[in-house]
Amino acid sequence: MRFPVTCCLVVLLLAGMTVRAEEIGKVSTTFKMVGANDKIVIEAFDDPDIAGATCYVSRAKTGGISGALGLAEDTSDASLACRQTGPIVLPPEVASGREDGKRVFRKSTSLLFKKLQVVRFYDRKRHTLVYLTYSDKLVDGSPKNSVSAIPILPWPGNR
Questions:
Q1: Could you give the number of structural domains in the chain?
Q2: What is the bridge-based pairing of β-strands 53-61 and 78-84?
Q3: What confidence tens digit (pLDDT) does each residue in 45-66 have?
Q4: In this predicted model, what pLDDT tens digit does every residue of 87-112 receive, in sequence order?
Q5: Are 124 and 137 in contact (CB under 8 A)?
């Protein structure tokens, strides 16, 4: 009886630590007679550590009855586009490379064990932020991934 309670507490704690994404839009990809249609969802999130850096993620969302109930496992298909949306000043931890590979976004894509993640790297030579999205699973992840980069440029009115 202890396992379900512990498991639920862990899920609630992990859910509280994730960056919230704003849904921008969605399109249906298949028709389901019963339950929700399969969809592609577009969401935006701001890098929690770097003001002026915004990423857009498109991802598959499984429909049907299990999808409507939140029990379906979404596929690992995702795409990522990140842009400079304001002046960017890199924190020292990012500029030094000490935070390379830091997770800046995570979204659950199954009831418990599968997550879509976005991690950030800093390419010092090109003065560019690089973001990578991939999915992982408790036992095995997926090699499907997408990458996007933001060359850090002077922002108008902030020179």
A1: 1
A2: antiparallel
A3: 999 999 999 999 998 887 776 6
A4: 999 999 999 999 999 999 998 877 66
A5: no
CA distances, 40 to each of 27, 64, 74 (Å): 5, 14, 10
Q: Is residue 49 part of a domain?
A: yes
pLDDT at 113: 74
> What pLDDT is attached to residue 7?
40
Q: Could you tell me what percentage of the chain is helix, strand and coil, using 3-state DSSP and rounding each to the nearest 5?
A: 15, 45, 40
Q: How far is CA 42 from the centre of its chain?
A: 11
- Which of 97, 104, 60 lies closest to 82 in space, CA to CA? 104
Q: Which tokens is 122 given?
A: 């800093």
Say how far apart CA 101 and CA 104 lie, in whole Å.
9
Residue 90 in any domain: the answer is yes
In the sheet with 128-137, reading across from the earlier edge strand, the strands are 102-108, 114-123, 128-137, 145-151
Mean pLDDT of the chain: 82
